[in-house]
Amino acid sequence: MKRAEGLRANSLQFTLEKNPFRILGGSVHYFRVPRAYWEDRLLKMKACGINTLTTYVPWNLHEPERGVFDFEDELDLEAYLRLAASLGLWVILRPGPYICAEWDLGGLPSWLLRDQNMKLRTTYSGFTDAVNSFFDKVIKKITPYQYSQGGPIIAVQVENEYGSYAKDDKYMPFIQQALVSRGITELLLTSDNKDGLKLGGVKGALETINFQKLNINEIKYLDDIQPQKPKMVMEYWSGWFDLWGGLHHVFTAEDMILVVTEILKMDMSINLYMFHGGTNFGFMNGAFAVGIPAPKPMVTSYDYDAPLSEAGDYTTKYHLLRNLFSSYHNQPLPKLPSPPERRAYQAVVVQQHLSLWDSLHSTEQRSVSPVRSSTPGEGGLAQRQGT
């Protein structure tokens, strides 16, 4: 089913099929949630009054080794898009290639670093060749799910917060063209904090802003550089991530709802990052290195103090948001899905174990000197032993 006109940003308000439209969005990453729980989380999103799902696409999971692609099971992006459509949710897709997301190397595959001359997020040929190869695969899967083709995707983001990096002024046009030339026809967006807005945009894409605490001057700046366009907070940080060795971050529900209320009063669109955080499975948690002496890794949990907890439970934030968003809908919101069933399991008793040192003899690759963890492969897993 083809449609006439998708999401447009030609005035102070978004339009969809030429009708005024406000994005009430929430981020849920399919790769951070077991597939068995996808529907539960999205049903709870719908019941909260959210109309748009946003998700990143992690290159390093979909292409763990160069030329080896995985879109099956928990990584079945097409199934996730079909599910969103079946539940009546629109989708803003953020395919990177860099996604940040507090994810290992920002979603870039570690095998890129085997090139000793690699220059990430630039038009260095070693990087652009790899991006082109990945986009050849992933964009082909995305295009049939665009709004114009009867699908749920109403917008696609170009890269992610490039303004805070900005090493190559030809890079963002390259990514934009890489998307468009492969058939992306929906509205293009960029996403940056206030400082990143200066260098993070690209001609032809709507600039959006990221923040947690409302600063009127930041909104005014966005309006100044992009007049007569709809304003959107692409990442309203509903909580924050946690680092190993630190305390769990809490952003109070009362403070959160005050800011969201003000954003909506200003006729802006919003996306909650995160609506449901999920889990950093395996070794995919990233590390944070800004403003601290040494990088610190993220913890396994990506609960984020989000409106829906890591376990999928409702929180005070959820109920406050639902009450607020209900006033922006003409129809009553769906009933709340039942809370998940809880069971008490017996303790697991470990009978045997094998230490890392005792397993070294079975490794396929050995080196007498330390190597970069990206060199052996295996998702950056390396074992080192010294005297």
Automatic annotation (TrEMBL):
Gene3D superfamilies per UniProt: Galactose-binding domain-like (2.60.120.260), Glycosidases (3.20.20.80)
Source species, domain of life: Eukaryota
Keywords in alphabetical order: Glycosidase, Hydrolase
Feature: compositional bias, Polar residues: 365-376
Organism: Crenichthys baileyi (White River springfish)
GO biological process: carbohydrate metabolic process
Protein name (database record): Glycoside hydrolase 35 catalytic domain-containing protein
One example GO MF annotation: hydrolase activity, hydrolyzing O-glycosyl compounds
Pfam families registered for this protein in UniProt: Glyco_hydro_35 (PF01301)
